[in-house]
Design brief:
The protein is mainly beta. The protein has strands at 3-7, 10-13, 18-25, 34-39, 46-51, 58-60, 68-73, 78-83, 92-99, 115-118, 122-127.
Length: 128
Amino acid sequence: QVQLVESGGGLVQAGDSLRLTCSASGRSFSRHHMGWFRQAPGAEREFVAGLSWTGAITDYTDSVKGRFTISRDNAKNTVYLQMNNLKPEDTAIYYCAAERRVDSTVAIATQPGEYGYWGQGTRVTVAS
């Protein structure tokens, strides 16, 4: 079991930066691929970034490549999402999630259904 709590959201101006933090509890945290998803009003939840349990492999949706960076500190049971040069279209609730599998040897999942553990979300609003 993994419990996740996000923090770090807020209201910022276009071009600003934010760092989201996902604090995890549970003994298996370090063995899960982790992901960040977001959901804008009226839209489906979409994959933003993912990181393998080893920390060696990352994946990003095209719209955030070069602006967002996902990282993890397994010693602190924490995952981060550094978001730079934010745009109004980044406005959404951001969710941290852990894949159902542990010690996965396959690619980071991009579909929400592959994730079994979710945080409550943190709101990011980017004003133009």
